[in-house]
Amino acid sequence: MKKTVCVIGLGYVGLPIAVRSVEKGYDVIGYELSKEKVDMINKGKSPIEEKYLDDNMQKFPVKASTDEKVIKKADITLICVPTPVDEFYNPDLSPVIGATEAIIRNLKKGSLVVLESTVNPGVSEEVLKPMFEAAGYKVGTDVFIAHCPERINPGDPKWNVSNIPRVVGSFDKKGLDAAVEYYRNITTGEVRPMKSIREAEAVKILENSFRDINLAFVNEVARSFNILGIDVKDVIAGSATKPFGFMPFYPSCGVGGHCIPVDPYYLIERAKKAGFDHKFLRLSREINNSMPVYAVELLKDALNEVKLPLNGTAVGIMGVAYKANIDDVRESPAVKIMELVKKGGAKMNVFDPHIPKSSNVKTLEEILKKSTALVIATDHNEFKLIDPKLFKKHGIKVIIDGRNCLDKNAIKKLGIVYKGIGR
Q1: Which structural domain, as residue segments, surrounds residue 150?
Q2: Catalytic: 253?
Q3: Catalytic option among 6, 148, 259, 405
């Protein structure tokens, strides 16, 4: 019998897995609070920029609804809602709790509930399971709970929901077997069962904390090398020739996205409650959070070289998305850079070809024409392909290359002040 899957949250995680589940033969219903998203999805249009969705949404349409009662039909329910932090970096589990409450109100007995949202170790045991039990459901009999931490890399041409390996944990063998079967049906990648649900929760936190720590290290090295007159990009290329014991990470004007700047805080705060202080993780977050400020300091220094103040100068911010060639602004360092530039009194122009609604100029030519200084906050292909002579033609005096994606030497030869992150 064909099983019905309900995906709660049709964003960067939920929508691709919903489409993939349709592709693999499941009946799929999406539950989403945003009526605008639901209307677009029901018309076969993706509300987000993602190649897998562009290629497959029309072929494998998802039925979406704002009515939580659609959960009643589900044999498998996936929770794919955000797990943000507040302004003080405290984890906010309210979207997960809200989704769980909706499931409890509409639970089909004997169904599988999979939490995909990234959480700290212990959330399934300490939050989800008690909620079901308080409602009178026995976990392992009336409902089966599993955790399969989402893995998605927006804009990646190789890895998507159809082939990324996954890990799964559950409270019991029946729940684990059901979750493993589902994920093995929808991905060609390895699906690894974990010994416990807590281990599965810890996997994603470890992955992203590892990246955050290494990015913090290379960002700090870049700032050191800038003072020492060493080009960090060349040094990384040299170090990467070693075939073992080295993995290249690259500095930038900040770390963005929904995972790396957020997930470490879930581990930091949960460990603190257990009496452990993650000093290394806290320092990494501090360094990476400081990079937008550093980029604006570079801008001020570069403007001083051409005897211009930040106040009153026309500054073009090129890119709002947190990474290249996508339309995702979650935790984007560009947002902080724009706040600081605006606070400094600059006349700010913003252009992102992937996010027109976040731009106040319409074309690349317009931002070059209207700006005296540029900050490359996102390394979109459209920016990397610019002929440096265009900068000179439009009278650009200063370029802050926050992604180290431009030709430094070609720009400097034109008499333009160039500053990269560690270059």
Answers
A1: 4-194
A2: no
A3: 259
